[in-house]
Write the structure tokens for this entry.
Amino acid sequence: MSDATATAAVRERSSDDQFVLRWSSREALKHAVLIVGALIVLLPFYVMLSYSFKSPSEIMTNTGGLIGLQEPFRDDYCVKLGNAAEDCMVTPVIYNYTTAFGKAPLLRYLFNGAVVTASIFFIQVLIALPCAYALAKLKWWGREFVFSMVLFCLLIPVHAIALPLYIMLSKLGLTNSYAALVIPWTISVFGIFLMRQFFMTVPDDLIDAARMDGMNEFAIIWKVMLPTAVPALLAFAIFSVVAHWNDYFWPRIVITGNRELFTPPLGLREFKGDADGDNFGPMMATATIIVTPLIVAFLIAQRRFIEGITLSGMK
Amino acid sequence: MCWPNSNGARATVATITLTRISKSFGATRVLNDIDLDIQAGEFLTLVGPSGCGKSTLLRILAGLEEPNTGEVRIDGRTVNAVRAADRNLAMVFQSYALYPHLTVAENMMTPLRLRDLSWRERLPVAGPLLARAKHKSLRAQVEETARILEIEPLLQRKPGQLSGGQRQRVALGRAMVRKPVAFLMDEPLSNLDAALRVHMRSELAELHSDLGTTFVYVTHDQAEALTMSTRMAVMMDGDILQLDSPQAIYENPSDIRVAQFIGSPKINILPGDVDSDGRISVAGMTLARRVSAANRGAISVGLRPENLKLAKGSSAETIEGTLVYRENLGSDLYLHLAIGENIGRLIVRAAPHEASGLNVGDQVFVERLRGEAIFFGADGKRVGAAGLKSNGADAARAVA
């Protein structure tokens, strides 16, 4: 707790030029609120991580602290298959994670997730950058109207149009395919809006200079605007990838039979409501595996991500 | 710094002709039927207060903006329909407009790559292999320009790592490297600090005389226009008021707005009166020169600060005022005097030794130098060719 008190105090320069820590109840209150908020956000993750380490009995009785005692327990499923009870003793953490990968083709799901999110993001950028450029830097009749339509589209929740979209895709015979997972998301109005706001801050001189140098408008988009927009693009990448990597709703609708096309969140269902009841250990291990790539990516890109959000990429 | 002459192989100097150019943005008319002949190899400055249309005129010339009416001709060829890059002009922007993600060398290479290489030769890895000689020659051209501008050590840096002056040079280099038929400059010095700006003025003027290329330079700073240009066009409210050499414009402004805009400190404008004989009276004095009696009535008399001098004591030919401010420039002193109600302020140039004993609040007498006053009618136009000085013929032609 000493850390908390240190941050809750204000650093001040005293007259003899030394840093002293001074108690400030205002700052303390602020930090107290922030700490409570952080705990509420982190608690589900704590439970997820903790359950992924524990044996079923520890989960049921809620004992064992964070990582459990790691005492071997008997795997009933293994016994059922006719093995001797001694051979079926397993360590909880190993059992949970191997089951996660073994019982469901989790690697396949992760691969699907990567393909789908990467394709979605790639096509979104392909469409959003030219749109944003036209909205921010070109003058044409109806531009303000189109931009207001973009803003309007930001207000439409995806769930409202899910059914028409599904019907459309099924009439085209595209359900149960990567296309069904990717196509509905390729035009991101949020992406267009975000990039347009960023492009507004790029000086017109830069574009004029590129025109004088002989670039056409598309060359300007990909060779001048894209490189300067990397921070904003990264911010958009996080929004887009997080949303579609974690999406459970849409894959659940359009992927009806083929397990080969499941995305990681669908993989969680494998451990839900089996005949032998819920299997929380492997399920939480799966969840941990699913969120890890995102958290790692965020930590790596954290600084540029915040740069992009504040749209201060260029002077 | 020494600029070697550009190689004669591609010595291209363009005459540029603008005919009846007009431009409106919505309901706002920015340019009113501008006619402008830019001669080959001259340094022409478009100068005027912000919003006078000078930048728009330059952008129309560059091909970045379309005129509503009128014609742009480069070397006699109409280029209205030619896109900016194909007019072979180079532009230097106020914000330098360097590509932030490319190094200095890549920035300077860009216009050459786009002009001289096919798309296949521009490919990242295959390009240099396909056309080794071409790439080598482009690199050589960039290095040559960098050497002239003394920015060779910076070639591998990104613009973000450069100071303002260095970025300015790189922007200049990017313009020079393509050996354009004319350089267009849109207030290129206004982002530099004062000392560097003064230094760059002389460098640009030198660069112009060494390259021998046509320069079209836009600025709101009358000092830049006076120091660098061969000719300058004073623009206001979408019109060119006067086009002439800096000296002619300074000495013989054709319009009161030109007189007030050019020259620092500002010209003194005194209210005067013309009687039925054409005699001019101003501040209680009657001037020796006369104007045509057709100008009867109110008139404005312009006197530059250097056309006034301190007088020893009061006489019929002196104006009396209270010293309110001493503007000390070291070599010169400008004395700001408060005169009577209908005259207002008067600025007088004095040598430091003459004004050494004067303090703010003192009573000061000034007299005018004979034959230097210039007159403007009620409409702001110049009046009285009778009093024009030696190069009055030039000015008269310019006005006509």
Remarks:
- The interface with chain B takes residues 203, 205-206, 208-215, 224, 227-228, 314 of chain A (CB under 8 Å).
